[in-house]
């Protein structure tokens, strides 16, 4: 299942987008967005997010 962004915790820093090897994450209007069609469940974004804003929904 694709990663999920908890909007209330996301600071829009872009750390998750920088580490995603599949380019499945973009930051728009200071909010990370995961493209579930590109996400391969590697969980790099989950480990990288300083705010714990990404989960394995």
TrEMBL record:
Keywords: Iron, Iron-sulfur, Metal-binding. The keyword Iron applies. GO terms for molecular function: iron-sulfur cluster binding; metal ion binding. PROSITE patterns: 4FE4S_FER_1, 4FE4S_FER_2. Residues 1-30, 32-57 form the 4Fe-4S ferredoxin-type domain. This is 4Fe-4S dicluster domain-containing protein. Pfam families: Fer4_10.
